[in-house]
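User: I want to check something. If I give you two sequences, will you return the structure for each one separately, not as a complex?

Assistant: Yes, each is folded on its own. Here is the first sequence with its structure:
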Amino acid sequence: MNKVVKDADEAIRGITDNMTLLFGGFGLCGIPENCIKALAETSIKGLTCISNNAGIDGFGLGVLLRKHQMRKMMASYVGENKEF
């Protein structure tokens, strides 16, 4: 199986409304920021997002929160995201 994709749009292909997604990284380091941006450009909604960090205003998972694409966020730290 080839798990290498050419871009973020190909990486998010198959993601639909109401899915649960796990996001890697620690804090804002190593997060899949290009995939998050690609998701934000879609009309996908109702996502349950699991990560150690909820992003910040305008970056990381905070982008999906601002666009109301998240239904639920499960994180160990949300302190830097004023919107939460």
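And separately, the second sequence with its own structure:
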Amino acid sequence: MAEQRMVKCIKLGRELPGLKEPPFDNAFGQRIFENVSEDAWRMWVEHLKMVLNEYRLNLANREDQMKVRRYMEDFFFGEGAGQRSEEHTSE
């Protein structure tokens, strides 16, 4: 069995198991792969559900896809991204 790949998670601020593969086939996906842990990715997926519902976004719509990309970029790499938000402390 292959050894688990570790990353210094930009969101959670410590060494944690990384994603098994980049989430997207582009430079942004590679950046996430290199800097985001599996735990932080799961946090994003839960956050995304809230964003999609709150803003009534449709991922089939190109404009909404770009909004989600910006939310994702802010979530992982924006100001304060390295601090756990209140919504995730109850996990």
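Because they were folded independently, the notes below concern the second chain alone. Helices lie at 27-35, 38-54, 62-77. Confidence is low (pLDDT under 50) at residues 84-91.
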